[in-house]
Amino acid sequence: MAETPGAGVKALARSPWARIALVLSVVGPGIITANVDNDAGGIATYSQAGADFGYSLLWTLIPITFGLILVQEMCARMAVVTGKGLADLIRERFGVKATFYVMLALLVANLGNTMAEFAGVAESLAIFGVPKYVSVPTVALIVWLLVIKGSAKIVERIFLVACTFYVAYLIAGFLARTDWGEVAIGSLKPTLDFNGPALVMVVTLVGTTIAPWMQFYLQSAIVEKGVQLRDYALSRLDVIVGCIVTDVVAYFIVLACGATIHKAGGHIGSAGDAAVALKPLAGTWASALFAFGLFNASVFSASILPLSTSYYVCEAFGWESGIDRRREDAPQFYFLYEAMIVLGAGLVLIPNLPLLKIMLLSQTANGVLLPFILIFMLLLAGDERLMGRYRNGRILGALSWLTATILIALTGLMLWFTFKS
Fold first, then answer.
1. Which residue did the predictor score with more confidence, 123 or 195?
2. For residues 26 and 226, is the Cβ–Cβ distance under 8 A?
3. 304: burial class by Cβ within 10 Å (0-12, 13-18, 19+)?
4. pLDDT, mean of residues 150-176
5. Which of 71, 388, 86, 6 is nearest to 239 (CA)?
6. How many helices (DSSP H) and strands (DSSP E) are in the chain?
7. H-type helices in 83-131, by residue range?
8. Which residue has the higher pLDDT, 299 or 365?
């Protein structure tokens, strides 16, 4: 008889220490994956949303959060049921040709995302007087050493600690002298101008919050962690908590910039500009916390994004992968990881590179790619031969297809307005 998700939790309910050990053995991938979502590109996007549109787009983060939970839960469920990563499943079900094009598009988007992370490192430390020609190579070396010299367990623990520093944005939001009445209206009263800038920003918000790479990394991380079906209840909780926490942080970034920069009629050119702009409007502490949060997020994500790229490309083509594997056993895995770091950091050092434009374009590319990745996921998660009784049911399937349809429609509108203008 098949095990029921959550049975392992019930069996160990009488032993507190065993329950703690079980929790530590399962949680991590969901919280880490969701929090990496608030990377340098994401912070730049949320900052610009608040600076340009004030509180008026806060309401979008509520349905986006539900969409994120829906998508991430499917990935976690496929991981524990099949024991395979998403790229692996796409290759088996849809063939090598489809997999190749998906991987190529994701590789290009992820290079842009990785550049955005190192750009975030440069901008955040420039506020404290550190030039990018010092900060970017130093952080690139640290990121490389972290994965090359560490084990999967140590790396995951470091990433979990990094997640706690996102509280800096919540504090910055409270220091921004926010009008909570206006925040409530912006959060609960949906309004949207159907023009190019507004639609591009909404799709970019979706793209930075529900990024395509996240689905591949989450599923691979759960598989590598060896989470069993009987412990799926904890894995699902890990995913849900991570999704809620990451969007609360995003909410406060939009809120802080809406309460200060938008109210002052200002405009920002980058996430670093947002941190600088907060200083006269919300005080030195708010500015410093915002800059620190950007640095933490950039280093954190600069570690994860190249790693996620290595995981899904290696899975797609059947190559060995994993932090705990030796270089000689997984040469493609380590080559891809190092190439992404070198290219991402090296390109950012080019003088006069439009860093904000790269950040926002990478997030918009995520928004355009996501619907196609979702279609693959929905076909896999609804396949009874693959998922058995854990496949998407009628209600969940309908909600998932509705989400994908809305995203495709938004993407189409965004492209139409962009080319029209």
1. 123
2. no
3. buried
4. 71
5. 71
6. 20, 0
7. 86-94, 96-126
8. 299
Residue pair 249/170 in contact by the 8 Å Cβ criterion: yes
CA distance to 307, 327, 331, per residue, from 334 (Å): 9, 6, 5
The token pair at 196 is: 């190019």
Q: What is the CA radius of gyration of the chain?
A: 21
User: Rounded to whole angstroms, how far apart are CA atoms 56 and 294?
Assistant: 23
Residue 418 or residue 181, greater confidence: 181
Least reliable range by pLDDT among 93-102, 167-176, 390-399: 167-176
pTM strictly above 0.70: yes
DSSP, res 272: H
| DSSP 8-state code for residue 189 | S
Write the CA distances from 182 to 57, 58, 161, integer angstroms.
Answer: 12, 11, 34
For the CA atoms of 168, 136, 325, 75, the dihedral, rounded to the nearest 10 degrees, stands at 50
8 A C-beta contact, residue 316 and residue 91: yes
CB count within 10 Å of CB 338 equals 16
Q: What is the CB-side half-sphere exposure of residue 396 using CA atoms within 13 A?
A: 16
Write the DSSP string, 26-83: H-SHHHHHHHHTSSHHHHHHHHHHHHHHTTTTGGGHHHHHHHHHHHHHHHHHHHHHH-
Of the candidates 383, 377, 373, 379, the one whose C-alpha atom is nearest the C-alpha of residue 408 is 373
Q: Which amino acid is at 108?
A: V
Please state, in angstroms and rounded to a whole number, the distance separating the CA atoms of residues 271 and 123: 8
Model confidence band, residue 415 (pLDDT cutoffs 50, 70, 90): low
Contact 200, 414 (CB under 8 A): yes
